[in-house]
């Protein structure tokens, strides 16, 4: 296609949302009108499914749950007045709590103000708060947010060490929808211990964000934690940024959560339109479907040209991959669906993996996120008449063009500024696009059975460890791995046992491995 035809295509397909000042350009995805027509029946069904979902249908059949993240930013849409009221009240409680913490009306026992927050949570209970903090927190927030989003002991130590002089003024948010995920539970126990080590009573610093009556909720209630906020059964972890999961940390950092909700609501209104060309989420879903042949054959590379948005790709990774990455479709057919997502930021990545994007395996489509406002205030001229922002803008256009010339397609989302409204809108845009795409490919976007398999396997390894160590304690002399496995009733699991013991040995926790380390089956093991 020549330059004039491309310019025409750009204008034909350009979507603009006036209220949000958001543009979506899918002109560099090479679909044609016949393709769009061929998808119309699937889109009609997707829009109908979505309308039912918003009315409270059981849109997550496997877990027999409603899917209601859209109600969080428009409580009047909730299917019952009770739910509407609950959403409204929770938001008011969050704002009141944040205000009291910021003004010092709620303060720690030994300080006049809370200065820091440790947020403990994983997956959807971390990625949204992390993305939003990076995108929107002021340079000097009223409370500084630190994350424990893993089970890495060294990572936990690092956070606690950084805060060792301010633990007495550090609030702890424990965020877990289920209230039973091992990682946040373990993180909480470690942090609790650190507080005890500083003679601080954990309950006076701790806030739980979890489902009512979960194990975490019960613990927080029994121990009299500072506050508890509800997470709802009908909100999935990966779409929970606009629930207490995301709003509590955001409000505490002084982020305008109402503006974030308003931006999401405006985008929800725009993505409810059942006309593909005038619905930005449908345009995204259409582009993904075309790019990956409806089978996820191409990865989604997300490139925000703005440092504060660099966590967007990580956030989208869970939203897209946990939602779409499914073995079976809704009819039980094996389909192995999904779209792989990765990315970081431009133009940084220009000097890293963009080389491969331009010339290597053509297994992706790019999504550029462009921000029109360079910075607040005037810019220095780097060259006559040229600012750093001009360079960044030029790098984006240049990369988009260079990729297209080499048959690598791309989408460009443009926002006027990074602010709570546009960030809320971006989240809502992708939530809806994922929901619509899931309908196009007929998968349940709202469950995650694959994650459960990994969780179960991990639990069985820990169970094996307990059994093996119990056997080892009774042994008087060193024993071979085979024998130990036999005695533990786990002859088939020698490799797992070897790995368990090697790990415990490396941490000098009462297990000694002897022999040729390069030949694991030559090793003997004893308790020290
Ligand atoms: O908030 P929870 O229940 O601790 O779960 C954390 C994460 O774990 C998952 O359930 C599965 O990994 C995610 O979907 C979720 O975001």
Automatic annotation (TrEMBL):
Subcellular location: Cytoplasm
Protein's UniProt keywords contain Cytoplasm: yes
Reactions this protein catalyses: alpha-D-glucose 6-phosphate = beta-D-fructose 6-phosphate
InterPro entries for the chain: G6P_Isomerase, Phosphoglucose_isomerase_CS, SIS_dom_sf, SIS_PGI_1, SIS_PGI_2
Gene3D superfamilies with a match to the protein in the record: Glucose-6-phosphate isomerase like protein, domain 1
Entry superkingdom: Bacteria
Keywords assigned by UniProt, alphabetized: Cytoplasm, Gluconeogenesis, Glycolysis, Isomerase
Principal location listed in the UniProt entry: cytoplasm
Keyword Thylakoid: no
The EC number(s) this enzyme carries: 5.3.1.9
GO molecular function per UniProt: glucose-6-phosphate isomerase activity
Pathway membership: Carbohydrate biosynthesis; gluconeogenesis; Carbohydrate degradation; glycolysis; D-glyceraldehyde 3-phosphate and glycerone phosphate from D-glucose: step 2/4
Active-site residues (renumbered): 322, 351, 455
Family assignment from sequence similarity: Belongs to the GPI family.
Purpose: Catalyzes the reversible isomerization of glucose-6-phosphate to fructose-6-phosphate.
Name of the protein described by the UniProt record: Glucose-6-phosphate isomerase
């Amino acid at each position: 296609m020549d330059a004039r035809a491309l310019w025409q295509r750009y204008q034909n397909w350009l979507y603009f949302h006036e209220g949000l000042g958001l543009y979506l350009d899918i002109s560099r995805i090479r679909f044609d009108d016949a393709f769009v027509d061929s998808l119309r029946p699937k889109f009609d069904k997707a829009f109908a499914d979505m309308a039912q979902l918003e009315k409270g249908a059981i849109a997550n059949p496997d877990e027999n749950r409603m899917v209601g993240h859209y109600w969080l930013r428009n409580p009047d849409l909730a299917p019952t007045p009770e739910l509407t009221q609950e959403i409204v009240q929770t938001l008011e409680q969050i704002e009141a709590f944040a205000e009291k913490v910021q003004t010092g009306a709620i303060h720690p026992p030994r300080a006049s103000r809370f200065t820091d927050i440790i947020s403990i949570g994983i997956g959807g209970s971390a990625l949204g708060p992390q993305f939003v903090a990076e995108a929107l927190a002021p340079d000097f927030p009223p409370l500084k947010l630190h994350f424990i989003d893993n089970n890495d002991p060294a990572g936990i130590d690092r956070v606690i060490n950084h805060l060792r002089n301010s633990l007495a003024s550090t609030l702890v948010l424990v965020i877990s929808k289920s209230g039973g995920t091992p990682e946040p539970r373990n993180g909480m126990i470690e942090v609790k211990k650190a507080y005890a080590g500083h003679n601080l009573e954990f309950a006076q610093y701790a806030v739980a964000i979890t489902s009512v009556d979960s194990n975490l909720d019960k613990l927080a209630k029994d121990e009299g934690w500072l506050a508890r906020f509800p997470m709802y059964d009908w909100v999935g972890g990966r779409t929970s940024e606009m629930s207490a999961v995301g709003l509590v940390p955001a409000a505490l950092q002084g982020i305008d959560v109402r503006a974030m909700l308003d931006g999401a609501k405006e985008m929800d209104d725009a993505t409810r339109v059942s006309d593909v060309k005038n619905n930005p989420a449908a345009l995204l879903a259409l582009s993904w479907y075309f790019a990956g042949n409806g089978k996820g054959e191409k990865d989604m590379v997300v490139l925000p040209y703005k440092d504060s948005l660099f966590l967007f790709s990580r956030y989208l990774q869970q939203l897209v991959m946990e939602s779409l990455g499914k073995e079976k479709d809704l009819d039980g057919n094996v389909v192995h669906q999904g779209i792989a997502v990765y990315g970081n930021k431009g133009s940084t990545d220009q000097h890293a993996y963009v080389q491969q994007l331009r010339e290597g395996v053509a297994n992706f489509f790019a999504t550029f996120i462009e921000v029109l406002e360079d910075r607040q205030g005037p810019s220095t001229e780097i060259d006559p008449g040229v600012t750093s922002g001009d360079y960044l803008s030029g790098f984006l256009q240049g990369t988009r063009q260079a990729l297209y010339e080499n048959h690598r397609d791309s989408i460009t989302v443009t926002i006027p500024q990074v602010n709570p409204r546009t960030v809320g809108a971006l989240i809502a845009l992708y939530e809806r696009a994922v929901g619509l795409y899931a309908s196009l490919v007929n998968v349940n976007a709202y469950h995650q059975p694959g994650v459960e398999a990994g969780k179960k396997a991990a639990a069985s390894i820990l169970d094996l460890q307990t059994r093996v160590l119990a056997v080892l304690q009774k042994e008087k002399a060193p024993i071979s791995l085979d024998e130990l496995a036999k005695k533990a009733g786990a002859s088939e699991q020698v490799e797992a046992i070897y790995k368990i013991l090697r790990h415990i040995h490396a941490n000098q926790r009462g297990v000694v491995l002897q022999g040729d380390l390069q030949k694991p089956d030559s090793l003997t093991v004893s308790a020290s």
